[in-house]
Amino acid sequence: MIIETRGLRKVYGANTVLDGIDLDVREGEVFALLGPNGAGKTTTVRILSTLTGPDGGTARVAGHDVVREAAQVRAAISLTGQYAAVDAEQTGRENLVMVGRLMHLGRRAAARRADDLLERFDLVEAGARRVTTYSGGMRRRLDLAMSLVGAPRVIFLDEPTTGLDPASRTTMWDAITELVRGGTTILLTTQYLEEADRLADRIVVVDGGRIVASGTADSLKAQVGGERLVLRFPDAAALARAAGLLAARVPVAVPERLELGLASDGSAADVHRTLDALRSGAVPIARVTSHRPTLDDVFMALTARPAA
Amino acid sequence: MTTAVTAPAPVRPAPAGRHGGLANAVADTMTMIDRSVRLTWRNPDTLIMSAVLPLLMMALFVYVFGGAITTGTEYVDYVVPGIVLLCTGYGASSTAMSVAADMTSGMIDRLRSLPIRSSAVLVGHVTASVVRNVAATTLVVLAAVAMGFRPDADPLDWLLFAGLVLLYVLALSWIAAAFGVVAKSVESASVVGFVMLFVPYLSSAFVPTHTMPAFLRPLSEHQPITPVIETVRGLLTGTPVERGWVALAWTLGLLVAGYAAAAWLYRRRAGR
Asked: CB–CB of B113 and A126 under 8 A?
């Protein structure tokens, strides 16, 4: 296990932020901590990257204890935090060279490494410009590039795409996928289910400082059970009548989309039965769709709170 | 702008870095000094303010108030040492802002998660402050000469002056750095600048302390800036240096206190 924690606890005043977190991350995998704001994701990353000490429990990264052997841990990891940690008044290249020199690569090797990374992250032309002129997506790419200067064995990505537009997010995902191919272990935190689904080999859902579920994206979806039947209605009155007629099946209403969601076994017979029940009440229906549960459904079911 | 997308070049394997050891600690510190000095030049507003403000104040005191103030010597000769120290104090205060900028952005997390000596970050900021202030102080002294300041210092006096001012800048920069570490934002760190601008008024910088009301005198005579100013005045203009050792003791004391506070607060805040 390249990351191993047992009973990790962190308390700020009267507020227990982490309440016994056990993690086992294998070398080379992408591991996601999924949870809402305040679940304890960032605190976990801060402990694992030696920025803060735990109040209880143990954590080992790359074979070293994060408290007693912080220097060895730091030599093996890199951190890309929630806010792009780049010097706005330095150029992209200067930022990279600075990190290279702090990793003790030597002047010439640091310069070479900077040029390699600029190329890899599509920042060659931007490299000579100050970061103040960069877009949000370019800053994040530079931030990620800075994390790779020392070729770390473990990379922590704390909400790597929060606040990015969809196009930049996709670029960032591609960059992360590329890293994985190189065999780097990645621990990422996210509140986007789509992100965890797309990038992670294994997911741990955290809420209120505890792990509430863990597994692959598929196994988590399976925990919520079969298919979902979604009915859309032409108006709010029809939605309300349908909810009344189907009350026995505990539907979940989404009034702003005029939709009703039902657990279903996905069979044609079940769809027939549902539609017949509505026809007998003369409720007009606009659309019927059926889908496998998304991580959104998992998230809602596990944390009993709408997902971000 | 558009970037040409080319086929990804084969990425060379990252070279292995070595960690630990005194040589690396020195190298880390040099890298951070390099960074802080570069950031200073890239943000010329701070640099210009820390030279222009003292120049304006000197012009104000020499040409506007000076005629009405009797000090027993040419007023320009009396006021320049105070202006020099006000200049360095104000210049040093910008250290608080540059440290706060790091502490309140993600930068500090990045730097702290690297295998470097933690003192390197603050030493970088303080060294850049000293470089900035040596430049600003030189400018202020030259401008003073242009306004009629006539020092009668010999080379040894100049050397002692330079040494004392350097220590004073270093002390105030560390104190400012300590404030920068605890400041909640860059804006709140800028308050240090107002303090450093105001405190010299309650000293012998602009008027002799014996002209002040009795309740102010104990404060203005015994606050650290007064002996330093008197010593600088003595070194440059030949007035008697009575409290040179007091000035040195205050400066060294402030330096040690500022350094210790900054280092302790940095470790404490960083561990949150």
From this structure: no
Topology, domain A3-222: Rossmann fold (3.40.50)
Distances (CA, A) of A188 to A9, A82, A306: 19, 11, 21
Contact A74 B115 (CB under 8 A): yes
Chain A CB within 8 Å of residue B27 CB: yes
| Strand pairing class (A185-190; A30-34) | parallel
**Which residue of B18, B42, B109 to mutate against A (max A Cβ within 10 Å)?**
B109
A152 to chain B: closest CA residue = B14
Q: Is residue B7 part of a domain?
A: no
Q: Which CATH class is domain A226-292?
A: alpha beta
| Interchain proximity A50–B35, CB inside 8 Å | no
Among B1, B19, B106, whose Cβ lies nearest the Cβ of A81?
B106
- Residue in A closest to B13 by C-alpha: A151
Residues of B in contact with A108 (CB under 8 A): none
Q: What is the pLDDT of residues A99-135, one digit of tens each?
A: 999 988 889 999 999 999 999 888 999 999 999 999 9
pLDDT band, residue B20 (cuts 50/70/90): low
Q: What residues pair up with A260 in beta bridges, in sequence order?
A: A231, A253
Domain ranges of chain A: 3-222, 226-292
Are the C-beta atoms of residues B115 and A50 closer than 8 Å to each other?
A: no
Do the Cβ atoms of B3 and A52 come within 8 Å?
no
Residue A202 pairs in a beta bridge with: A31
| pLDDT reading at B5 higher than 80 | no
The total number of structural domains in chain B stands at 1
A221-275 per-position pLDDT tens digit: 777 666 778 899 999 999 989 988 888 877 778 788 888 888 787 788 888 888 8
Helix axes B22-42, B119-146, angle to 10 degrees: 50
In a domain, B231, yes or no: yes
- Kindly report the nearest CA distance between residue A80 and chain B, in angstroms: 7
- Our separate counts of H helices and E strands in chain A read 11, 14
Contact residues, chain B, for A46 at CB < 8 Å: 109
Helix (H, G, I), strand (E, B) or coil at B112: helix
Q: Which residue of B has its CA nearest to A81?
A: B106
Cβ-Cβ contacts under 8 Å for A223 (sequence gap 6 or more): A213, A215, A298, A301
**Do A122 and B5 lie within an 8 Å CB cutoff?**
yes
The answer for A154, left when phi > 0, alpha when psi is -120 to 50, beta otherwise, is beta
User: Across-strand partners of A232?
Assistant: A259, A287
Please indicate whether, in this complex, the C-beta atoms of B8 and A82 are within 8 angstroms of each other: no
